[in-house]
Prior knowledge:
- Pfam families: PilP (PF04351).
- It is built from 3 helices and 7 strands.
- It is an alpha+beta fold.
- It has a domain at about 95-175: SH3 type barrels.
- The strands form 2 sheets. Strands 4-5-6-7 form a 4-stranded antiparallel sheet, with no helix packed on it.
- The protein is elongated.
Amino acid sequence: MARFNLSKLLSSVALISLMGGCVSEDFDDLKTYIAQVKSKPATPIEPMPIIKSYESYIYVSDGLRNPFEKLEEPQAIDVVASVEGPGPDLERAKEELEAYPLDTLRMVGILSKNNELWALVKANDGVIHRVQAGNYLGQNFGKITAIQDHQINLAEWVATTTGKWREREASLALVE
Length: 176
């Protein structure tokens, strides 16, 4: 066993001595490069950016509505149903697309059949519906008044804060 350890020791010493011959102490090229870098003038450091001072703002909420309380719905049908004058037909059966808010519906195309224009409307659940003038869209009693190549025109009924109905125009543009 002593021979085996001695042979390992001798081979390790020989390997180390061979590797020592590979190392050179000549660093002239490195010293020249360092001298060149040090001889170049230093670039000036940019000044620190000017930081604007903070101006505090005092929010005064006296007399304003609390934004964290639920806003009363101005379109409560119970209150508005008793108002005299023009308004939507509250007795008619609702159509399927009246369950969706108008901003979740997308016009995706048009069809023409027997000189009648039909619009294709995609609901947010992915179902495509075929509608024509006289059908209803959206949750504000929006009746389709006209279908054009690039949009659907509607007449909606919205309740005012005074409890009366007001008609307004809306449209649904073709999505490219």
